[in-house]
Design goal:
207 residues; four-stranded antiparallel beta sheet; globular; mainly beta; 1 helix
């Protein structure tokens, strides 16, 4: 999924710890060996295709203190779906309303962050290749949002990549000139933009 391109910029400019994991790793009590747990989301593609390579299959993005993991997987039709995996191995798959789910288009939903209350933040790509942020509550209620100033052309839009215990989400948006800006969304939906003094603002992604 094209989200990978933005992830590199996020780490460099906002130092957000939302790195994809090759597999889930559960750390037990300090001083004991870690237990490596490998898994594939139910319905995930088992073979790579040109449409999604190298992002075919299951990608775990983050784990909270309770051992709940979120990420996304691509199905055999190259449609990305968000997932939540509980410590007992139970999976919940979900897609944001309005995401693009056409076969072979590599559009869909990506869960990127989860807090200890179980609130998830992420992004989805619609049928026009525009990105939108979302917040998903523990009861499954999903709220899409767009940062003010986010572009509405292909590969522009809003990506939420981190969420704290109070439900404030952090991420980036790409404007009409393809420049990246940071944003902070409060738990009640108020969005503030972030452009530190000295930021290089031009017609290319600032990362």
């Amino acid at each position: 999924m094209k989200f990978r391109i933005f992830a590199v910029c996020l780490v460099a400019s906002l130092t957000i710890a939302a790195h994809p994991l090759a597999s889930a790793q559960q750390d037990v009590t300090e001083g004991h060996k870690s237990k490596l747990v490998k898994f594939d989301a139910p319905g995930a593609a088992k073979k790579s295709t040109k449409a999604c390579a190298p992002d075919c299959g299951t990608f775990a993005y983050t784990i909270n203190d309770l051992g709940v993991i979120v990420g996304y997987y691509t199905d055999p039709h190259v449609v990305p779906h968000g997932f939540l995996r509980t410590p007992d191995g139970h999976f919940t798959s979900f897609n944001a309303p309005g995401d693009g789910e056409g076969a072979g288009l590599n559009q869909g939903t990506v869960a990127i962050a989860i807090n200890n209350v179980g609130v998830i933040a992420g992004q989805f790509e619609d049928s026009k290749d525009i990105y939108h942020g979302f917040i998903r509550e523990p009861d499954g209620k999903l709220t899409p949002f767009d940062a003010p100033g986010a572009g509405t052309a292909a590969n522009q839009g809003t990506i939420a990549s981190s969420i704290n215990l109070e439900g404030a989400a952090l991420g980036i948006y790409v404007d009409q000139g393809n420049t990246q800006h940071g944003f902070l969304r409060s738990h009640d939906g108020v969005i503030s933009t972030i452009d530190p003094t000295g930021s290089y603002i031009s017609g290319i992604p600032a990362c």
